[in-house]
Structures are given as C-alpha cells and as structure tokens.
Amino acid sequence: MRFVLVHGSWHDERCWKAVRTFLECEGHEVHTLTLPGNGERAKPSVTMAETARAVAELIHARELRDVVLVGHSFGGAVVQLAALKLAERLKRLVFYNAYVIENGRSVFSYVPASVAGAFQSLASPDGTLTLPFAFFRDHLMNDADLETARAAYALTSPEPLARSAESLDLTGFAELPVPRSYLYAFGDNVFPAAEFTWHPGMSQRLGAFRLVTIPGGHELMFSDPEALGRGLVVAGRD
Amino acid sequence: MRFVLVHGSWHDERCWKAVRTFLECEGHEVHTLTLPGNGERAKPSVTMAETARAVAELIHARELRDVVLVGHSFGGAVVQLAALKLAERLKRLVFYNAYVIENGRSVFSYVPASVAGAFQSLASPDGTLTLPFAFFRDHLMNDADLETARAAYALTSPEPLARSAESLDLTGFAELPVPRSYLYAFGDNVFPAAEFTWHPGMSQRLGAFRLVTIPGGHELMFSDPEALGRGLVVAGRD
Amino acid sequence: MRFVLVHGSWHDERCWKAVRTFLECEGHEVHTLTLPGNGERAKPSVTMAETARAVAELIHARELRDVVLVGHSFGGAVVQLAALKLAERLKRLVFYNAYVIENGRSVFSYVPASVAGAFQSLASPDGTLTLPFAFFRDHLMNDADLETARAAYALTSPEPLARSAESLDLTGFAELPVPRSYLYAFGDNVFPAAEFTWHPGMSQRLGAFRLVTIPGGHELMFSDPEALGRGLVVAGRD
User: Residue C230: closest CA among chain A residues belongs to which residue?
Assistant: First the structure.
C-alpha cells in the first residue's frame, strides 16, 4: 500500500518515525509531511486551506496515485478537505481517532465544554496552545510509560488555534466515491468519554465505513507503533 | 460440551466448518444444520415457525440432551423460538452478536432506519435479499483480509425476507429456566453503532446472562474461527 | 511502587493473594487489609467512617508514604473517604471497576433499580447480603472457569448493608491534589450495561484521570491476577 500519513495537533512528521519503519519493513510505501503551522514553522495565523493544500501539493508533486490517506486526530479534518481536491488520487481514507467534521462546523465546535474552557485558559497571547505535560501524560499517553511519554512530549510544539475555529466548507465530502475506514483505539482518553467519543461519535459521520478496533490510546505512534502500523494495514487494505 | 450451532442470514451450515474443527479438536460435540430457506433450499416464503422447527427436529431426531444452543445474528431469534419448545433439552443458550427479540416484535423492527432503506432497495422481486460485496466486506468482514472476505462471500446465498418481518410470539421466553450467555465481539460493524448495539442493546433483553467479550467482528467463523470457538467455550461452559 | 489494596464487597484481603505475588515478583511493595465488617469480623452495623479509618490507620501505623492507593468496586468509596485524611501520603489513587461517589450520595444510590430489588429480597435479617452462587458465577466471574469461580466464591462472606446506604460527606474530594487513574476491565458484567457503566459512568466523576482499559471482568484478582497486576502497574506508575 501507498500511505500518506497526516499528523494531528502539536505534532509534526517526526511522530511517524517508528510507524514508517514498521510499514516499510512490511513492504509498504510511506509519505509524511509536516503541516504548515506545526513543527519548527510556527505560524499561528495558518489557515485550514493552507494546511490542506500542503497535503494536496505533496501528492501532486510526488505524482502519487492509489493513496491510502491517513489522518490522525486533527488530521482527520485535514484529510477531509484534501480529499475534496484529490478524490481521484485516493484509494481509501483512514481516520485514526480523528475528527470527522460536518459541513459548516469547526474542529473546536466538537471539543467538550469541560475541555474547551481549559484550552482557552491555556492559550498563549501569540494564538497557540501548548499542552501541559500532566495532561499529555495522563490523557494522551495513558497507555505508555513515563519515559515514552517524555520522549513524545519533547517532539511536540505549540498548536495554532485559529484554524481549528474555522467553519469548514465540506460540501460534497459525503458523496465522494472514496471508501473510508475508521481505526478506533478504544483506550483513548483525550476527552471525557461521557461527553465525546471518536467512535461512534465521529466515525458515524463517514456514512458507510470499515471499522477497525484496537487496544490503546491516542498516541499509538509512540506507545505502540507496531500495533498502529498493523491497524493501518487492516484499515487500508482492499 | 454438546453444541448445536444455528447460523445467521445469508449463511448455511458450511459457515461453521472451521469452528466445528476447532471445537471437535478440543473434545466437544458439534451439531449444525442449514435452516430451511437458506443455502441451496431457497424458499422466500419460509416462515419463522418452519425455521425454528428445523432446530427442534434436529435435536429431537438425534435425541440430544444438555445442549448448548448457539444462535448467530438472525439465528438468535431462531434459538429463542426453538427454546420455547426445547427448554428441557437445553443446558444453556448462547447468543453471538445475535438478535434477542421482544415478544411481539420482528427481526426487521430492530434494523436501524438508515440500513432498512438500503435493504428495501436491494430486495429482489422474488422476496430475497443479496448483500453487495462492498457492504459485506467492510461491514461484516471488516476484520478479515480480502481473500478471506471473498471466500466467505462465495458461501453466502440470498436471504428470504418475509420471515424477518414476522411478529414473533415469544410468550414465556423471559421465564424459561435456561441460563443464557451473550458472546459479544466488540469490533462488529454490521449496523451504525450510534443507532444499534448488540451489547447492551440486544443482550439486555436476556435478563440475567453471562457476558463474554472478545475482539473481532460479525463473521468470526471466517475471520478468526479459533477465537470464536474459544469464546463459545467460555460462553457455554458451566 | 508501594501499593495499598482495598478490597470490595463480600471479599477480604485474601482476594489479593495472587495479585500480591505477581506485584512483589515485579519488585513492588504490597499492603492489604481486611476491612472491618468483612471476612471473619462480621459486623452488620459497621459504618463507612470505621471502614475508611482502617485504611488510614494501616497507612499511618506502617508509616507509608508515596502510596498508590487502590480501591476495587465498593472499595472505591472507601479510598475516596480515606484519601480525604491521607492526601499527603498518596502518590496516586487507582480505581479498578470501582464506585466513585458524588458528595452526599451513597453506594446503593448508584445500583440499578433492577438489581437493587434483587439485593433487597436477598438481604438477611441480620443486615447482611450473601450473593447466590449463580449470580456470582455469571455476573462477577463471567470470564473464569467453574473451578476458579467456586474457589473465589468460597472466599466470600456476607456483606454488611447499612454502610452502603450511608450518604457520604466527600466535600473536598474533587479538589484533592492527588492524581487519579481508572482501571477499566471492559468485560465486567456486574450490572446491566444499559443502566450502569464503570467507565464512563463512574470514572467521569474523577475529573482529570488516566484511563487504563483491559479485557476481563469484575474479579480479575481471581480470573487473571497477572493481567490485573499489570493493569495496576500501568495505572499506578508515574
């Protein structure tokens, strides 16, 4: 398979290192990118259009076809937008504990009220959000040991907030003739489960889709990259 | 244990081949049948009474006692009806991602509206329903590779629709003194999880029951027959 | 890690034997106690204050610090109360399929109506409740074989009822600066899942917490003590 992996908030393409190694050893082709606004290229005012365009440009520049396009977390919204411009290049869309946005809504519109307040109070004057380590460790890395959690945290960077508040024009996404999979790691603890679920909360918006369930949390690329790699193969294969 | 295995819609007794091998190797006794209306004996007008009678006849003809009677999917409704006539022959009822019908309702009355519409439009003039492979592959065989999904699909046949619309007289089922187990494969993707669940949606109607949870989807007899066999032993044992 | 393990209803400290062996072999320190009112010291009128005090006294008498305080089932309410007096001695609170009580409520106030009736009718004149083996076997030991279920049942004793009906003063629990984990065994079958969930039903009341999900049921100390031990380590570590 030919994977293009789109990271989530606070991450850049370095998060995929171990997953890439696993998938390549299994004979697959892997492409990654750092989204504009993430990693070293901090730019709080980056837009969703710019963000999604970077994915489209990668696929066009490398002349990729039959792509299994994977979005993680915030990356779900990005691959939805990119898919609208790339449908003919795609074999399948895969969402790993990722947002699936309804037409006209924003990423932040789905964040539970109890967390949105905390996010607001943590926002920097420059329009970015840095996760406190205590939250990252117990909510995103709940299935990892402390050393792994620290190493993953060292690879994060401030997340631009403005784009996640944009209402997204996803007209036509529901009708795109691209098969979809939702890879659901059911030990995810990002948001309170009584208020928010990746599956079925987010997944149900895909219409028909293949469900793949695996143990583990929100950052399997760090806590168990082989399990994530195996899950991506099950989610992405014909 | 002495198992009688009752298949679901679109299937016939060939679906149990690998599960039977596993259970027999473990020292258990296994009986299967093809329900009237399924397999080569297509008969769109077959009734639920005829269907359940076939299970009762098998058990009486072979003089089976202490039976662990297993129903898969649609087969749940069949074992409910059969149990009303067979209670003294049964050691335990086991439902594997199976319907548990309330008195006076039909199988189809539980199908989510979003899927019922698709089922209606796919119905043949002869009163049967053939699942499209794309649906079977991503919704029923979501945990299998393509080759396994194709091999399983080759063993399916059109499902008679009329019996699933019948209101069932299940008077006395709740009070039957037969222990019950629900074997729940939690990666099941047949119906949208936001609208329908096998557990707790269906299972809760059993009253007191033993819950057994395992990974995997709706067709473990094909995607992982050993895991299903182990689950049946845990569900069926004393 | 330094664990203090608080058992649930019907149990005493003997339930932890195999978990203790596992944890000690892994290099951890383990302390257990039999709560007043349980085990041989039957006392139907025992109060929650007396019960929680026993935990506090153990920790003070042995001069324990940096304690990972674990509560199972009913023991969740006990560790909540104990934590109010012990916060400075605690490294983390761990709840394993355990009650998390809201201020002013009782343990019994959370028991689903369908089960509360059965509990009431099973109560002895002396104010205790003995679980029937059939319920224990299929609802609490659903993931164990019969021999294991019988051996576990032989270690149970009548549970005093009065304390579980007490409204608890948990003022300040939400604000305690002690990290919390919820260890959720998702095959638990104690109460009907359509009416009651440990996670997210109980867990959500912890505020911020680390979620750890594992297969298995309500009595992993008997059905799979190593799995429980590993889960406790994941839940309790820094």
Answer: A143
3-state secondary structure of B217: coil
> Which pLDDT band, with edges at 50, 70 and 90, does C201 fall under?
very high
What ranges in chain A are assigned the alpha helix state H? 17-25, 48-61, 75-86, 113-122, 133-135, 146-153, 220-223, 225-236
Enclosing domain of residue B60:
2-236
Per-residue pLDDT, C222: 98
> For position A52, which CATH number holds?
3.40.50.1820
CA distance C200 to chain A (A): 6
Beta-bridge mates of residue A92: A68
Integer CA distances (angstroms), B93 to B65, B174, B184, B211, B225, in order = 13, 12, 14, 12, 19
For residue C142, give the nearest of B186, B199, B212 by CB distance: B212
Q: Token match 């008997």: residue?
A: C222
B interface with A, Cβ–Cβ < 8 A, is 134-135, 137-139, 142-143, 145-146, 186-187, 189, 192-194, 215, 217
- Numbered residues of chain B with Cβ closer than 8 Å to any chain C Cβ: 179, 181, 186, 199-201, 203-204, 208-213, 234, 237-238
Chain B residues in contact with A199 by the CB 8 A cut-off are 193
Query: Do the Cβ atoms of A208 and B138 come within 8 Å?
Result: yes
Structure tokens at B227: 């895991």
CA–CA gap between residue B184 and residue B220 (Å, rounded) = 11
Least CB–CB distance from B208: residue in C138, C143, C194: C138
Exposure b/e, C165-197, CB count within 10 A at least 16 = b: ebebebeebeebebbbbbbbbbbbbbbbbeebb
> How many CB contacts within 8 angstroms connect chain A with chain B?
39
Q: How far is CA B77 from the centre of its chain?
A: 8
Whole-model pTM over 0.95:
yes
Angle between helical axes of B48-61 and B75-86 (0-180°, round to 10): 60
Phi, psi of C214 (to 5 degrees): -140, 155
Q: How many domains in chain A? A: 1
- Closest CA relative to residue B82, chosen from B110, B51, B106: B51
CB A173 within 8 A of CB A220: no
C11's tokens: 């149990």
Residue C22 phi, psi (nearest 5): -60, -50
Per-residue pLDDT band at B67 (split at 50, 70, 90)? very high
Instruction: Return the number of other C-beta atoms located less than 10 Å from residue C138's C-beta.
Output: 19
pLDDT score recorded for residue B41: 75
Residue B221, CB-side half-sphere exposure with 13 Å CA sphere: 26
Report ipTM for this prediction. 0.96
